[in-house]
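Lab notebook page, bench 4
Experiment: in silico fold of construct C2
Operator: M.H.
Input chain length: 271 residues
Purpose: comparison with the prior construct
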Amino acid sequence: MLLAPSLRLVALPALLVAAALEGAPAAAQGPSAGDLAQALANPIASLIQVPIQQNFDFGFGPGGEGWKSTTNIQPVVPVSLNRDWNLISRTILPIVHQKGLTAPGQSQFGLGDTVQSLFFSPKAASGLVWGAGPVFLLPTATGAALGSEKWGIGPTAVVLKQQGPWTVGALANHIWSLAGADDRADVSVTFLQPFAAYATKSGTTYGINMEITRDWTGDVWVAPLNLVVSQLLKAGNQPIQIGAGARYYVASPAGGPDWGVRINLVLLFPR
């Protein structure tokens, strides 16, 4: 059985360029729009942020009339461990509203399962930037149709290269269940997210990624291709990033979605 979308590490919230920002002398006015936009293309940048990602997916069910709305709240908090290493905490808490997935006309609303990732990343990155650590699956879903009812753990890693305005890399994890409801299927899920982004000096970012999920227990592939355009703005003194785009499912199980829409809002807290 394929896990709820909460297990997918959807979206690349800003995690790693601040390694670059952190190691460089700060200008009096702080990081430029281009610097922040590039940091947001890095899944493990040393940059405190609170991304809120809204996904709408359509085409579920035998008649293709089912739909799902998933709001992912994804705080990213970097912690300096010492002069050489950062620990970056990345949490994904989904709020799900879906209709026509379990039976025609039936709907469910509530929390999904939480995915908690911890990346250990060197501060003095040169060439390739990377981070690795554990990922945890927490059964926080408020309904059986919204989560796995399993506790899980596994490894996660990200590697990327930033050159000029470009960021190219990949994020991956695998989660195995280790405890939980005996009447639910075991969890063994691989996630792979290759990504590329182009950030302009004015703070506009053009991004493309795939979110490939392989459910080994259910023998299911899910692979949406996402295209998103984002813009860095200021609300008073608060820098934010807003974005929107579309997704097409290159691979999807029978009765799965065909296409979707994504909207992003990211609150940024540069150091």
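Observations: The radius of gyration is 18 Å. The mean pLDDT is 86.
Next step: discuss at group meeting.
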